[in-house]
Backbone:
């Protein structure tokens, strides 16, 4: 069992009091997720927060945007230069096997790296309804993407439970946007060179 947090997910008690406030300013958001498992949640997230309520501007890769037959390095270059560069916040939708995916680790790493051509983005993790919580308020750190957890631990990222409340999600995104300028991210976890397997990752 990984660490549990007696106080619940950071920011949860605080942000629940924001439900009656106006939406925060819109930001350009890239969504990282497990394509095979969680496509429906990604589509719901963008439909609710980009189309219905205009909480964010989506800069994510849509199905058919990039030829899957291209070499992996060329696909990464396109994602980095044409999608991540245009975003200011990366949202990681965390399902049952998201931590296993090398492209999720790469997208997190690329988005929080600060370079002249690709400025750093804020980072927000959202636990999907399918994610196996320890209980209603606690998660096992070894079942979320390790680079996301390291940045949650250092205060650069926050991790929240799925919500369809526009004002709440807009606050989470805006807070991630603001943290990117005040907190240094943690890039110490070794980069994935392949997809992982198993139930949990290990340090």
Residues:
């Amino acid at each position: 069992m990984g660490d549990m947090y007696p106080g619940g997910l950071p920011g949860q008690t605080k942000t629940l009091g924001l439900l009656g406030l106006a939406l925060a300013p819109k930001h350009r958001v890239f969504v990282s997720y497990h394509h095979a498992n969680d496509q429906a949640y990604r589509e719901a997230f963008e439909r609710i927060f980009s189309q219905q309520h205009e909480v964010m501007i989506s800069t994510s890769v849509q199905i058919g945007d990039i030829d899957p037959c291209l070499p992996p390095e060329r696909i990464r270059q396109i994602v980095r230069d044409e999608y991540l560069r245009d975003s200011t916040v990366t949202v990681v939708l965390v399902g049952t096997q998201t931590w296993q995916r090398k492209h999720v680790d790469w997208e997190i790493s690329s988005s929080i790296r600060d370079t002249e051509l690709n400025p750093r983005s804020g980072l927000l993790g959202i636990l999907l309804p399918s994610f196996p919580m320890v209980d209603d308020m606690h998660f096992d750190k070894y079942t979320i993407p390790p680079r996301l957890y390291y940045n949650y631990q250092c205060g650069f990222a926050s991790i929240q439970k799925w919500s369809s409340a526009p004002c709440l999600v807009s606050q989470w995104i805006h807070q991630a946007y603001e943290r990117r300028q005040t907190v240094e991210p943690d890039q110490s976890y070794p980069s994935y060179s392949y997809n992982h397997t198993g139930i949990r990752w290990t340090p």
